[in-house]
Every structure is written in structure tokens, then in C-alpha cells.
Amino acid sequence: MNGILPLWKPKGMTSHDCVFKVRKILKMKKVGHTGTLDPDVTGVLPICLGRATKVAEYITDAGKVYEGEVTIGWSTTTEDSSGETVDKKTVNRSIKRDEVLAVLKNLTGEILQTPPMFSAVKVNGKRLYEYARQGIEVERPSRKVTIHSLELLDDRQCFEGESITFAFRAACSKGTYIRTLAVEIGEQLGYPAHMSKLVRTSAANISSDMCITLQDLEDKMKMGDLKENILPIEYGISYLPNLVISDTLAEKVKNGALLTIPDAWPSSDAKVVFYHDNKAIAIYQNHPTKSGLIKPIKVLHND
After folding, report:
1. Is 38 labeled as catalytic in the residue annotation?
2. Pick the CATH number of 3-62+204-236 from 3.30.70.20, 3.40.980.10, 3.30.2350.10, 3.40.50.150
3. Among the options 17, 38, 40, 209, which is catalytic?
């Protein structure tokens, strides 16, 4: 079984828990997920099966869309609702819609984020959440991420109350922490804040309406009716530039040959998918040391 299983991750399970469960249901070992979702987060979790594990990193690198909720009035240790309160400040004024929209606009584009202490980012060979559980705070490297769009999903013209909650939709690049984004929204409005809810609605062109639950998977496996739910490998890398190649060139590509840079090659740093007979057979990039040549990163089909 080779392809991408568009799984809807339930609340309370880690991404690894989902992989373990899928392995058990499908009775296969070669299964991998495409980017961690926190246990409290539900949503789209593409699972790679068999040969599709070769493209897992490219699915992870693709853009994602989330629908979240920010609560303004207090912040937490984990930057979401599962953490302990760190700072609290009563919202003592009305916050106008235009003010919220201005903050969202200000956070759109390329921004600098510092990963939360409760995250899987490694510092000195150790994950940040391991330090956090020991009560140790370490210096965290900030990194650039891209917020492609940030929309307010609330019709109110004015937000009032001792604490304020509103929903938003964020389309973003790999490595973005939506928890941290919620905190930043609050900070720019002048208050401590945290992310009170989050759902991933899309990942690598796989949307929520394409997903199946673990229970659906189990039922379909028993009935032998799973094929229609497995997406082809090509689906996960459809966002990469591609070139259709001839039969003769396809044989060389399947054998991992170095090639002269084609005329239609998009750019020096591109990763390009070669297609033959409507199948993605390999991913190539510029050779790092041999000028004028390209080399394979992944050979996907060599039969």
C-alpha cells in the first residue's frame, strides 16, 4: 500500500499515537506522519504509507491552514489553554474591530518568532519541552516564518469584557507556532493572551473534507474498501515545480543518473519533480559541486 492517508487527528492523541494506531489497523510498518500536531489540536494529519514516506518531508514543508481562537486576558506556561496561568490582566477597555484588524495585518507576512518552551525544538541536543518540564528556561533561537494570510472570523465591531475571545484563520509556512501567534496578537493589543482552541483545516493541499477518522479507517479496512481514501504520492508534492520527460530520459532518472540542466529548469535552488506516464518518478535539484548538472534527491519509482 503506497500513498497518503488524509487522517483527521482526534483530540487527546499525539501524532505518534496516530501513526502507531494506523500501523496496527493496516498491519504495515512503513508508516510516517508529516508534522507534529499537539495532543489538544484536532485536524488534518497526512499519513504517508509505504513508498510515500519518501515524500513526507515535502508534505511537512508545504503550507498549512489553521482556524484558531485567541483569548485575551491571561497568558499560560504552554501558550495554550492546557498550561498554568503566568500573567493576568483584566481587559478594562473596549477593543475596536479596526484595532484587531490592524494587529492581524501587522502580523501578516514574514515575521520573527521565538518557539515556546513547551515545544519540540531542540537546543543543545535536547527538546525544549524537556527543559520546561524540569523548570529550566533556556535561550531559544528566534526564526523567520511566513504568515500568508491572517483573517478575523468574528463579525463584532467592538470587543468588551474582562476577557475577550475571538476566532481567526491563519495560512502559514512550516515552523509557525500558532500558539505563539495568539500570544503576539494579545501583546500587540496590550494584554497577556493564549490560544484557547486550534484546528488544522488544511495541509499540503489536503483539506478537512478529504479526511477520514481512525474509526472510519478501521471500518473500511474490515470491508476492504480503503483504496478510494488513499491519495497518490503525487498529491503531496503537487506544489513543487515539475517537468514531463521522455521515455529515454525516464530510464536514466529511474536509475538516479546525473543530468545536464534542462532548458526549462526553473531556478538554481529549485526542487523539481520529474513526471513520466502521469507518475512522479523522481525529485531533482542542482548539483552542489558540479556546475551545469542536476542530481536526484529522491527516486520515487524505479520499476
Report:
1. yes
2. 3.30.2350.10
3. 38
